[in-house]
Amino acid sequence: MKIKSEKNYATAVCLSAILGLFGIQHFYLGRYVEGSVDVLLTVAWVYFFFNDHLLYGIIMLGLDGLHSFVATILLLTGSYTDGKGQYVCYPGQTL
Question: Which distant-in-sequence residues (6+ apart) come within 8 Å of 64 by Cβ?
Answer without folding.
Answer: 21, 38, 41, 42, 45
